[in-house]
Write a structure and sequence with these properties.
The protein is built from 10 helices and 12 strands. With about 325 residues, it is α+β, with helices and mostly antiparallel strands.
């Protein structure tokens, strides 16, 4: 398949049209209209085969995840997704891969009203770069630098499943087929918490998405805000699949430093908790209180006796 045929195949599957797209795929640049009284949130992520996903991952799952990791960043800002750009580097012009990739990408884009408005295709090692744009009311974006001493620390969903899925890939242990499938789904098709991020604009003092591991990502919040954070490891939410397979000590390591969760971690002032819980109950979004912001620096995970839990590493870091 030639380059322009590849582009057309992607366009047919992914170019969901929005009223605010003045000019989409097919010209030198896209033209879009930003709503009045909004600011534009923009983020980009690159996924490399063998680094960000196993090489045998299905094309559809790669397409889904390449968009999901970016939507998770928008969720952490409290932004509503709108447009995406895709740069796709392929070893060969594989029609089947491109169609599967585009189908996975388009499925998640449709869930969140995202329009693919442009990008690029090149030959080389399998690499995907996606840039997404979203709207947030002026002055209302969630940030990392506004956590305050006395705030409570919360996470959405459950933690550790994706890291457990990677650990279980070559395992022949006694994990059930149902649990294995559940863990792999969390790795291959993370669910960005866009609706929660938008809701948190009313309640959170700071927010970040959990991509490199809870300790590492909360470390960014602590540094940006000039505070310390303490996490109670026994409060960390775990899925039935994780509980089915992983002993507690190993489970805590996966939850704290495994990465690839794409949940949200956020801080809330104590007086805002009742209203937050009411809003969460109406929207059926799972969140868990896991810690507190303290007058210190860095992030510590504490066991049941209040002792600091030592881990070999805090999370994923390129070039480390």
């Amino acid at each position: 398949m030639a380059e322009f045929s590849l582009i057309e195949s992607i366009r047919q599957r992914c170019a969901h049209l929005r009223d605010d797209v003045v000019l989409g795929i097919g010209d030198d640049a896209a033209v879009v209209a930003v709503p009045p009284d909004c600011e534009l949130a923009v983020c980009t992520d690159t996924l490399v085969a063998g680094v960000h996903f196993p090489r045998d991952t299905t094309a559809a799952d790669i397409g889904w995840k390449s968009l999901a990791v970016n939507l998770s960043d928008l969720a952490a800002m409290g932004a509503t997704p709108a447009w995406a750009l895709l740069a796709l580097t392929l070893p060969t012009a594989d029609t089947g891969f491109v169609e599967g990739f585009a189908d996975g990408f388009a499925a998640l884009a449709a869930e969140h009203g995202v329009s693919l408005i442009g990008g690029d295709t090149t030959s080389g090692p399998l690499t995907i770069t996606v840039t997404v744009h979203g709207f947030v009311p002026k002055g209302r974006a969630l940030r990392r630098d506004r956590a305050r001493v006395g705030d409570t620390v919360w996470v959405s969903g459950t933690l550790g499943d994706a890291a457990a899925a990677l650990r279980e890939r070559d395992s022949t242990g006694d994990i059930s087929a149902e649990s294995r499938a559940s863990l792999r789904a969390r790795l291959g098709r993370p669910q960005p918490r866009v609706d929660l991020g938008i809701l948190l604009r009313e309640f959170a003092s700071s927010c970040i998405d959990i991509s490199d591991g809870l300790l590492a990502d909360l470390g960014h919040v602590a540094t940006a805000s000039g505070v310390g954070i303490e996490i109670d490891v026994l409060r960390l939410p775990a899925s039935p699949a994780l509980l089915d397979r992983v002993p507690m000590e190993q489970r805590h390591a996966l939850q704290l430093a495994g990465g690839d969760d794409y949940e949200l971690a956020f801080t809330v002032a104590p007086e805002r908790i009742p209203l937050l819980q009411q809003a969460i109950a109406r929207n059926a979004i799972p969140i868990t209180l896991v810690g507190r912001v303290v007058a210190d620096s860095g992030v510590r995970a504490l066991d049941a006796e209040g002792r600091v839990l030592e881990l070999p590493r805090a999370g994923w870091e390129h070039f480390s």
